[in-house]
């Protein structure tokens, strides 16, 4: 029997414009790659997803589960920029999972 993949849907806000996104788990390595490709963002995610450059900073609302946890280089990188809020994240450190369903992701200018 073939396993049906569930659609993951959320909203992205860039420069005040809301864009609904529908994707599936595993379609992208992480949220940064999805945002970069779907929204054609230039100068976004310049370090390639290792959590060092902070060119993929987003503000999240409605993310659940393990996707709320900051790991690896993320806390130190955000702290250097003065971001201490739990909902400010590096999109390269957020995986595409059901934790993103119904979330709102705002792209921040850094």
Automatic annotation (TrEMBL):
Q: Which domain of life is it from?
A: Bacteria
What is one Pfam family matched by this protein?
Answer: Fer2
Domain 2Fe-2S ferredoxin-type, first and last residues per copy: 36-97
InterPro entries per the UniProt record, alphabetical: 2Fe-2S_ferredoxin-like_sf, 2Fe-2S_ferredoxin-type, Beta-grasp_dom_sf
In Swiss-Prot or TrEMBL terms, this protein is called: 2Fe-2S iron-sulfur cluster-binding protein
Q: Which organism is it from?
A: Flavobacterium zubiriense
Phylogenetic lineage = Bacteria, Pseudomonadati, Bacteroidota, Flavobacteriia, Flavobacteriales
